Amino acid sequence: MPAKPMDLLQGTLDVLILRTLAAEPMHGYAVSRWIRERTGGTLAIEDAPLYKALHRLERAGCVEAEWGLSENNRRARYYRLTVRGRRRLKDEESAWRRYAAAVFKVLEPV
Amino acid sequence: MLPVVKGTLDVLVLKAVSGKPMHGFEVTRWLEDGSGGRLEVEDSALYQALYRLEERGLVEASWGVTDNNRRARYYAITKAGTRHLASESERLTEYAALLATILAMEPDATA
Amino acid sequence: MRRLFRHVRRSASDIRSELDEEMRFHIDARTEELIAGGSLPKEARAQAEREFGDMEDAREYIARMDRATEHARRRRWFMEEFTQDIVYAMRRLRASKLFAITTIVTLALGIGANTAIFSMVRGVLLRPLPFPEPEELYRVWSHNTNVGNPHVPVSSPDVEDWRAQRQKIADVGGYRFADGASGLDLTGSGDPERLSIVFVTTGFFGTLGMPPLLGRLPRDDELVRGGADHVVVLTHGFWQRRFGGSPDVVGTALTLNGEPYEVLGVMPPELRYPTDRADAFVPYSSIPDESIPHIRPVRILAAIARAGDGMTEEAVLAELNTIAGRLAQQYPENESYTRVTIEPLQRSITGSVRVGLLVLLGAVAFVLVLACVNIASLMLARATTRGREIATRVALGAGRARIVRQLLTESVVLSLIGGAAGVGLAYLIVNGLLGLSGDWLPRGAEVRLDAVVLLFATALSITTGLLFGMVPALRSTSANLQSTLREGGRGLAGTEGRRLRNGLVVVEVALALMLVAAAGLMTRSFVTLLRVDPGFQPERLLATVFTINTTRHPNPQYASLYARLLENVRAIPGVVSAGAVKDAPFRGEGERWGFRTPQMVLAVGQDEPSAMIMHVSDGYFRTIGARIIEGREFDATDRRDAPFVVVVNEALARQYFPGQPAAGESLVIDGENVPIIGVVGDIRQTAMEEPGRPTIYINNVQNTRVKVTMVTRTQGNPLTMAGPVQEAIRALDPDQTITSIFTYEDIVSEAVSQPRLLTVLLVSFGVLGLILGALGIYGVLAFTVSQHQREIGMRMALGAHPRAVQRMFVARGLGLAGVGIAIGLAAALALGRFLSGMLFGIEASDPLTFAAVTVILLAVAFLASWLPSRRAASVDPIMALRSD
């Protein structure tokens, strides 16, 4: 197992965020934490790209944002998946599975 | 047909030429066949990848003759390339698996 | 909860501060995490910031994203709110059906009338003529500088010379069309028919520039004497009617007046110049000299010219003036015709109705403004009851702008519905007006409800809605009102609203007065016109117009035919008397000849005076009931071989033989002494508004003309004699074609048809204005009474007599009306001069009319104030005081 966390492949950040928010509405920091925990630190999300992606998804209508109170009573911006977001998550998820399968096939040790 | 995700192309191309030297078109065909027809490689991306790999010394290029007697540039994997291929393909498969797992998880698996 | 009014809009700085806060939260959280893991605060923060990455880049990117998100959001909210507003507006309108229907009907009338008149203004005045570059076209007249007549018809040699000598002018042409007097008989194919012909010279088609629909136009050599000038071009209407639109007609020959004319082509339906009643165009050169001599003194053509590229009107005038001046030097007949007069062609066609149409447009706009003011008043009154509803919404967080938008949407929806109904009404109005008898509207065929008119109607509806909705909307949401309501006050029913409502009533009365004044002036003008003595008795007079064919009846047989025609017609049972004239009144202007009195001495270079020449038969004046003032009219003794004598009219006698009897005197015509045997009272010939001009009547037997209007005084209904008269004519010539049949009552009615129409319309608008004004006064007073029941009751309880209360309200109403009348009078007097072009026999500032109008308005104001005042007087003081 390589110790260095992997950089994300381009385009996979968006789908990762969508999957994260599918669990529950979160603020940006929580998204980052959730991904780190679920992958045991293997996948590291950089902060600036994360927020850029969040706002990009908001512009595209895949997520909705609202100010709320965090666990320690601070104002935080919470993101929630929209119907469009859910649909996109489903599409991208199946697309990624097919891609992964194709890559596996190619890279299989001969 | 799935477009190749940027960042994964280099590894796939290395894998293609790891067996025997190939020219560009053969690599495209090999990747298509090898993925069961699912992977689609754009020519310009392919040649950019080959150029990158050559720059980094992971492949070597030489002139050869194709089956129908045409001159073409053949790319062969180097020793450094073989080493790179081993580590990168491991990483890529791991990444793909990880991502697929996360994505496939049930929505309420939050704990 | 659907947040009706909570669409929070973020500004650019809001966006920036929010994303800063978001990023700060993240960094704070990471810093705390690191501190919890053991790092020092300062290092933890530094590390957190480092880990974040390129913050500036992220900031720019995110700000850009968010601004786009915000725009998309605002657009969506606007559409949502807009739809909401419309749905809400419809619901409110359905709830107050009476108000909605009254308003919609009022708006339909106002917008419909405006749309109808606008479509006429557009079709007649605004839309360019259907020729290429129509602004280059001019109508041209000869200008007799000697006698000072700037609008003299043109002679054909002059037109030819103008065309030949032109420099920068593109083309010049002439035509002759006399309704009912320029025609040719079509025989040989189907029923014989008398065609209405426009005779044209070279350059006519070139000047207009309209290409034919089929075939071709005549070449220059086909339009001159001696050339192949037996050609004809058909109009579209005639082609459809007679030949069913078959293209095979081109190249065939039509027999006109017994001679073959080759059909060269067919014109498109858009060609309605000079008239839309013509059947065909024929070269003027084909008219033989015996009919009309083609010499310079014979000036009967109308001329048109097309300016060259970039030529101004002054340049065209200058060039034609130069040519005319040259011809005046060259030819003694043209000595006095040193200049020309020109006018842009479109204006020359529509000039006569321009003032009338614009006045109508103004009047109808006033009516609409009146209606708007009424509706606004109504809405202001409603605003009080809606005040609480609005206050609730303000409490729920709606911004004032939002509510105003909502109220305006209601108004605009109302007026768009009214406007849609109005367009339907406009269609009916336009069809009705155009269908009236007589061609009272030039270019009437080009009036229709096209896209521009519909656009006008839509824009007008929206503007109207905004107009009458704006003030009530702003008032209902004003801060003053809100606080008043909260304190339990009466809001717009109180003093603040009253001043506004009073102001609106004053405006209404002023507008109503102006409308009624216009109606009054026009009515008096029309009545004066109706009282004009035309110079004859039009009842039971039948006119049958035909042209004797000189090939079949050459002179001298013509004279005996003429006499026998009269005999036959006089013998018909039911015919009281009969006579003939060349042109019936308002159906032709006769000819113009020069003459002198024997005593007259002309200075060098001074022209002879000229008079209108009209050919009549014996007994004509008796038949039509004209007054013989002196001497006698023509009778059987004035035969062909008898000495040449004339009858003159009163105008000529008064001008040239002042203070003495003219009968027995003589005139010098063409060097010959011609005795005057009688003087007849003036007969109106050109227009009812035009007094008689000096006229010389010639005995048709002594100096023949082929066009004949046979006039018969009948015992009963004149049209029942039409058949027998035609039979009597055909008995003498079975192939005689009849040009037209009408009664003298018809032509008198037609002569005043335009003023009649204007009067009817203006009176309608005046009545409408009066009703709306009365409603305004009534509404305001009734509302005041209903809102002030308590005060009235108190006053009466304290001893005020009901009569006094009543008088107070009437005084209030009359006071308002008085102010409005004063303003209206001032405005009407100021604007009156725009009407003077339409008025006959009275001034635009006629004091009697204005006095009458003032009285009418005061009376209506009194009535409108009296009704609510009775209600005020009948308030039971005890009941009023008890109700609280």
Structure in words:
The complex is a heterotrimer of chains A (110), B (111) and C (884). By secondary structure, chain A is of the alpha+beta class. Chain A has a single domain (12-107), classed as Winged helix-like DNA-binding domain superfamily/Winged helix DNA-binding domain (Arc Repressor Mutant, subunit A, Orthogonal Bundle), CATH 1.10.10. Helices cover 55% and strands 15% of the residues of chain A. Chain A has four helices and three strands. A three-stranded antiparallel β-sheet of chain A has the order 1-3-2. Chain B is α+β, with helices and mostly antiparallel strands and 111 residues long. In chain B, the strands form two sheets. In chain B, strands 1-2 form a two-stranded parallel sheet. A two-stranded antiparallel sheet of chain B has the order 3-4. In chain B, a hairpin with a 5-residue loop joins strand 3 and strand 4 (71-77). In chain B, helix 1 (9-19) crosses helix 3. Chain B is globular, with a radius of gyration of 16 Å. The N and C termini of chain B lie far apart (36 Å). Chain C is of the alpha+beta class and 884 residues long. In chain C, the strands form three sheets. In chain C, strands 16, 17, 18, 19, 20, 21 and 22 form a seven-stranded mixed β-sheet that branches. In chain C, strand 5 (183-187) and strand 6 (193-200) form a beta hairpin. The longest helix of chain C is centred in the middle third of the chain and has 51 residues, at 345-395.
